Amino acid sequence: MTCLHLLLTLVFAVSLGTPVEIQRPRGVPLTKKQFYEESKPFTCLDGSRTIPFDRVNDDYCDCKDGSDEPGTAACPNGSFHCTNAGYRPMFIPSSRINDGICDCCDTTDEYNSGAKCENTCKELGRKEREVLQKMAEITKEGFLLKQQLIEEAKKGQQEKQSKVTDMQENKKQLDEKVEALRTVKETAEQPEKEAKERHLKAWEEQKAAIRLEKDKAKMAETFLELDDNADGFVSVSELQSHAELDPDADGTLTEIEAQGLMGGAEQVDTSTFESVWPKIKDKYHSESQAEEPAPVETPPDEVKEPVVDNDSEPYPEDDISEEEDEDDEDEDDYHEDDDKAQPTIKTPEKTHEDEEAMPPYDADTQALIDAAQKARDDFEEAEKALREMDDQIRNIEKELSFDFGPDAEFTYLYSQCYELTTSEYIYRLCPFNRVSQKPKYGGSETNLGTWGSWSGPENNKYLLMKYEQGTGCWQGPNRSTTVKLTCGKETVVTSTSEPSRCEYLMEFTTPAVCQEPANIDPSPHDHVEL
Amino acid sequence: MGLLSVVCVSLFFSSTFAVDRGNFKTCDQSAFCKRQRALKPGQSPYRALLETLELSDSRLTLQLINDNNKVHLLLELYRLQGNMTRVKINELKPLKPRFEVPDVLIAEPPTEPLSVLSKDDNGVVLSLGAENQRLIVSARPFRLDIMEGPEVLLSLNSRGLLAFEHLRLHKDTLDFSLPGVEHVYGIPEHADDLKLKTTDGGDPYRLYNLDVFQYELYNPMALYGSIPVMLAHNTQRTMGIFWLNAAETWVDISSNTAGKTVFGKMLDFVQGSSEKPQTDVRWISESGIIDVFIMLGPKPSKVFSQYASLTGTQSFPPLASLGYHQCRWNYNDQEDVKSVDQGFDQHDIPYDFIWLDIEHADGKRYFTWDPHKFPQPKEMLQGLMDKRRKMVSIVDPHIRVDSGYKIHNEITSKDFYVKNKDGKNYEGWCWPGNSGYPDFTKPEMRAWWASMFAYDQYEGSMENLFTWNDMNEPSVFNGPEVTMHKDALHGKWEHRDIHNIYGLYVQMATAEGQIQRSGGVERPFVLTRAFFAGSQRYGAVWTGDNAAEWDHLKISIPMCLSLGLVGVSFCGADVGGFFKNPSTELLVRWYQTGAYQPFFRAHAHLDTTRREPWLFGPENTALIREVIRQRYALLPYWYQLFYQAHKTGMPVMRPLWVDYPKDTATFTIDDEFLIGSDLLVHPVTEEGSRGVTAYLPGAEEVWYDVHTFQKHNGAQNLYIPVTLSSIPVFQRGGSIIPRKDRVRRSSTCMENDPYTLYVALSPKKFAEGELYIDDGHSFNYDTKKEFIHRSLTFANNALTSSNLCPDCNFLTSSWIEKVLILGASKPSKVLLKMDGKETPVDFEFDTSMSVLTLRKPGMNAGADWTLLLQ
């Protein structure tokens, strides 16, 4: 350990091929050779102290900055320079000198460890040049593609911008049209409404008259039925035969109760029966049709008439038909249950319904309705067109609002999706939208995150995309994905991984991140030294 | 059993963050514990039949009779060499033989003669040979007292709690009284303080190896391992009780001073009227015999050597395993392993081992590799070997029941599985689903298991692949209390008899496999979760599935201290916490603590975010790098301490009272600890801490801050202001610690590096230390005496290295590059005397801290030399 070589003779080729010998302490780069002069005491590069030159590389750390031991592992913070002729020169921490591991391709870091290192610089240099060349080609082509992308994006952006402007102009006209049509519609609806109300009222009156008529007929019929002895009077005893009329529901209709129903009289004739009828008609069971239920009042909302006052609903027809379906179903169910309990024939109801169906509108009213309907249709159509236009404008504006890069070079990725199939999953990246994962052999898709932001380093944030708030993980965070962009001719997802539970990493190549190729010779070797 | 798996899964993946106590028994829910605990003192039915006394040279036998049921017990008493007494009690004529635990004692303990001093109708007095110790056997009721002079050191059955249940279930109980003792320690594993608490009004401490999901802190619940050894300590004496029983065991502790205030104790003292403080301990086991070793000390170091003479010492680990270990459930694939490995180099952080958890195997079939994620294991291992680094893969004892799996088929065909009570193979649920459990209690099964680690059996393994045994309690997801049914059968014994030793056997067989694969040359490294008395012989232990919480960081100290007291020095806790994500501050503090604990491994649950040391910004990367480097610089000291532990049984990480047994202020300290005798560590374990108060023990001592070299007096509470970079560590004045300050990528890379000696002078300008060097990985230190062991002494202004093992032979190329003498005065000249020559040595003197630095004396680390300060 004390017999270390202080100086290292370096032989390497300069570009002209003339061998040159340059002597300097081991591990010192040429750029710092001037600080290590054998004839003079050495001053630590941080200026902290000056030591005799024989303490440079003597395997004992004298300088706090490690500068006195560039070629040994004595200082914890030192660094060793390997020339790596044929490849790239580099610095390694001095703790890697003689640690038994070959770090420098020129083997200079392992001069006293017994490690058998082979000089691989030439090979590495060749490989690196190949890689660099390939990369350069890719970069070059990629950069060209990027220029096209930028062109297209700019064009597209302009087109969209002008489209939006045009559309906004059109929208203004549409707005006006909608307002105009609304007025037309409202104007047509007023007379329509009045005419329909008139019609409805007339029909209500007519219905009332019919009902009264029917009641009277029923009353007469009942009177005849009750008047068992046909003497033209209904007596107390005759009434008593109808136990269902029992007012206190104790099962028997007593004489007194019957008399009560008959207003205290022993018997009534047809005219006085009119005052008895209202008290009994609800409970009375006809003798001929004992099972006949009391007439059901058809609820007015069951009346099927064309729905006309539903302007505010966007899709009135659909809605109505659904409601009807549901109602029908409900009724069917209800009847089914009912049938089992009480098998009744529904014909009488039908008759009632027929009788009570509203008569069609008269020609005048119908004309008003038709006119109003047309006004409504026109209005709705115009409004729908307006809505569609609004949507289109919003979409374009949204697209225009995305950060597609300094030159909009990422625009082309918008509304595209790219897939990668692995042994288990199909991964899908839809830039600026979402990332997802689907098992290859069936199973539902998992959201690995929706578009969040560009999240590359400060100097180029466009190298990473962050997708966040995907499907939640059990006992963990919501899934998220980082997409790493590298320069490539093709736009492809090249790999995916899950470095941490539920945090995905996707590698993605695109010409959009290709940098302008530098105009220098990519040959890397030795230029630092010269 | 299939149905139960649902229950188990919900238990295991319960979303609440705390142990579900309902899943684990309390004493009241354990029939035998409840029944035996209900016994009240002073009603002992046992009587010694003195007429049956027989005394051979070193063995005394005597029958005891239970007057209630007339059952006879046989008492055996042995005086063991090294100041120990063994008491065995068994049924004279058991209906069914009781289990006696094999494979824990390293040999039948050598005995010493006993002699009867006197005998009458009431009892017998025996001489215990040493000193003036006597053993008094009282006949009615039966009790034993061990006396030294006029003092009772320890009494057995003084409370009359001895109980043997005689029928099918073989419960047994015995009580011990420790007069003059207020501090008892040990009986790990519990997530509790170092000093054991009294258990009156609560549950006893439970010893029953269990896979506890998200364990709670500061309670006596059972955890993954059990060592039934308790230490009792006061200023006069340290003693130990080793209860050799592998069945479920509960330990009750009560104290007559526990309820007293300091003032009350003082009043007693002043008035001189007090009863003597006393601790009473009751051991209750579900089956087996009573087999107790009473280790009489009297010094702490003596108790450690006594216990070591019974169960062996800490295995001497490969040096690399004392470095830093990087683990995670899971490193996903070979690519991941490679990039983590490169990450360490990119950030210039040393590490020695990277670990693969259960996902590395093909469908949790241990001894195999996932063909997609790890298609080229040898290529991966070779990559690590090229960097002089190593790997650990997990091999658990539950075996996937799968006819396409070689291991399962061989175990089946050799009939090596544990059986259920009906004699069929016992099956339970674990990671692979339905699993069998090899019967590790069978020697032939262990031999077969060991053979599976041969390079041609464990395909893809290489010499830098080591092993991790997890889930070896054993964990059975759908079993009672997440473990095996007690009526499962190991040959003729029920699982209840052997439960606590199952895990030991797994690690034993695995370590044996690693030794065998190298032809007996290389030392093994095996980490285990479950353990028992004797497990120290097979490798390292960690404290199981902790959590990323400050309290879990704190508890790592008493948990490892308790293990160290009972033989297991190679202990650590998952750095960062296994469950949950640590804050950056907690992670940094945990690295700082873990770097100063024996087993130093970061580990994390599958659901946590990645936490390799460089993922928290450059400042925190620098903090973590710094403390890992401190660890590596101190590896020579750690290694020497493990050698000492291996040779003597002295714990590596120790409570302060071990070295300062008369200083009562140290008796309950468990937020700081000693590494060996010479380094005192007080880790920062409070969030947002701005300072800690460390107790520096020893009225005669001085302590040097290892970072600033500032000197502090002993026997004081020192307030130390801290920042996030502070790790309060002190070197004892009077000690010499060798370090390797050139930290490299891995410990192996540092093999030939030079040493720096840190000589910390005592107030009397004296210091001593040792230096141990060997190849770091083989048994040659043992089989061929290939090591260097030197004594370093500083006295009379001369530092001398002398050989502690003249007949040893080992050559090192390491040398002494620097000597720092702390607390020195400035010499006029420094001379190196070596090989009869004197050469001057350059030096520097820092007057502000009185530090003398000798520059490059340059002698070989194995040589004789003296450095003279003039």
Summary of the model, kept short:
The complex is a heterodimer of chains A (530) and B (870). Chain A is an alpha+beta fold. Helix content of chain A is 38%, strand content 16%.
Write up what this structure looks like.
The complex is a heterodimer of chains A (530) and B (870). Chain A is α+β, with helices and mostly antiparallel strands. Chain A is built from seven helices and 16 strands. Chain A has helices at residues 121-226, 236-240, 255-261, 270-280, 316-341, 347-356, 363-401, and strands at residues 7-13, 19-25, 42-43, 50-51, 79-82, 90-93, 234-235, 267-268, 418-421, 425-430, 434-439, 446-454, 464-468, 480-487, 492-500, 503-510. Chain A has an eight-stranded mixed β-sheet. A two-stranded antiparallel sheet of chain A has the order 1-2. Chain A is elongated, with a radius of gyration of 49 Å. An eleven-stranded mixed β-sheet of chain B has the order 48-47-51-45-44-43-41-42-46-50-49. In chain B, strands 6, 7, 8, 9, 10, 11, 12, 14, 17 and 18 form a ten-stranded antiparallel β-sheet that branches. In chain B, strands 1, 2, 3, 4, 5, 13, 15, 16 and 19 form a nine-stranded antiparallel β-sheet that branches. Chain A binds chain B through residues 1-2, 58-60, 73-74, 76, 93, 95-96, 99-101, 113, 423, 473-477, 497-503, and chain B through 13, 15, 332, 335-336, 348, 372, 386-388, 606-610, 629, 741-745, 748-754, 813, 815, 817-818, 855-856, 858. Chain A: Residues 308-336 have a biased composition (Acidic residues).
